[in-house]
From TrEMBL:
Organism ancestry: Eukaryota, Haptista, Haptophyta, Prymnesiophyceae, Prymnesiales
N-terminal signal peptide: 1-24
Pfam family membership, one: PC-Esterase
Coiled-coil residue spans: none
Sample GO molecular function, one term: transferase activity
Record keywords: Signal
Domain Trichome birefringence-like C-terminal residue range list: 87-334
InterPro entries for this protein: TBL_C
Record-given protein name: Trichome birefringence-like C-terminal domain-containing protein
Family affiliation: Belongs to the PC-esterase family. TBL subfamily.
Length: 350
């Protein structure tokens, strides 16, 4: 299934964001990827700007005036301002000498990149030791049994002994889930956006959750399944009623004219996307009491202005003239700290 590219969002304070107007193109040639206050959120773009313990780079880099300060990003994110937040230090202290495995698609990788950023910012980072790297190498054969044959990547270690890994998975693969259970103590996972058939999605959630439930019953282990984040694609107005909101924001229902003239749109406040409806139905059976829900939909639902939007003319040539991304989110420290708070609280329950 086709998806929007793995790039990030657009920010609230930009005055040019009107629902029905096409968006100016993100400048990916200057400062790594910015448009006004919108910053591409992958680790290679943010690590030297927002992840250093000190702000020394802001003193010598001539491009610094192009980047919004972290304080400005915090102030602009009015959605996360009133929410409780946590630090990675809080989580690292909860999980000494345990392995945190984050599994999922490119939106989940954005969260992992934010955790990497916090690790350095909070001066928790230590080089992965030989024991950790050997452990990954030892388990590599497990990950090569399935279709994807992709072991986890981006190993990180905190001073508390907590270890982190990311595994790119967009749907259920039983061999990969089996490998993950041998790799991580605490597993945070989402599959959702790459499913259209909800009967198949529910069937595969049941199969995966049966595996996760066994893992989560063991002392020191936990599994959290994260809700699928909101998308904000402008919907085709087939009835010609002048829609100001999309019913779901889903890519499949998008107005295809926005592929070239990108416009993201708010979604109806009452909307529950189909993936989360299916997820709640499966968890509601009560068959998997140790698999816990990690909220994400409410955090992302109002963020229609926080998407990368017009991402045409990227240096790698991907979708050169037809790139509209209303899926991935721009970098917001406040958003990810709020999400981390939910993760910490739900881990305490798990």
């Amino acid at each position: 299934m086709k998806r929007a590219p793995a790039v990030v969002g657009i920010i609230l304070v930009c005055t040019f964001l009107i629902v029905h107007d096409s968006l100016p193109r993100m400048d990916v040639t200057i400062a790594g990827g910015i448009r006004g206050d919108c910053v591409v959120g992958e680790i290679e773009y943010i690590e030297h700007k927002y992840c250093e313990p000190t702000s020394t780079i802001r003193k010598h880099d001539p491009r610094i005036s192009l980047w919004p300060s972290e304080e400005r990003l915090e102030a602009a994110d009015v959605y996360s301002q009133p929410l409780p937040k946590a630090t990675l230090t809080d989580l690292a202290n909860m999980l000494p000498n345990q392995t945190l495995l984050i599994m999922g698609d490119s939106v989940m990788e954005q969260f992992y990149n934010a955790l990497q950023c916090m690790l350095r910012k909070e001066e928790l980072e230590e080089p992965p030791d030989d024991a950790f790297l050997n452990f990954i190498k030892k388990n590599e054969y497990l990950w090569k049994m399935g279709k994807r044959k992709m072991p986890p990547k981006l190993p990180q270690k905190a001073r508390t002994g907590m270890k982190m890994l990311f595994s790119r998975q967009v749907n259920y693969q039983p061999e990969d889930v089996a490998a993950s259970l041998q790799t991580g103590d605490v597993i945070v996972v989402n599959w959702g956006l790459h499913y259209d058939d909800m009967n198949k999605y529910k069937k595969e959630l049941h199969e995966a959750f049966a595996q996760f439930e066994q893992h989560a019953t063991r002392t020191g282990n936990a599994v959290l399944f994260r809700e699928t984040g909101a998308q904000h694609f402008k919907e085709a107005d087939e009835r010609g009623v002048g829609m100001l909101r999309s019913s779901t924001g889903e890519w499949e229902k998008r107005d295809k004219s926005t592929d070239k003239n990108c416009a993201c749109s708010p979604v109806e406040d009452f909307n529950v996307n189909k993936q989360n409806r299916a997820l709640h139905e499966v968890l509601g059976t009560g068959k998997y009491p140790h698999v816990k829900l990690l909220p994400f939909a409410d955090l992302t639902r109002p963020r229609w202005r926080w998407h990368f939007g017009n991402c045409t003319h990227r240096p790698n040539g991907w979708n050169w003239d037809t790139c509209c991304d209303c899926t991935h989110f721009c970098f917001s420290p406040g958003m990810w700290k709020a999400h981390l708070f939910d993760l910490k609280n739900n881990l305490q329950v798990a």
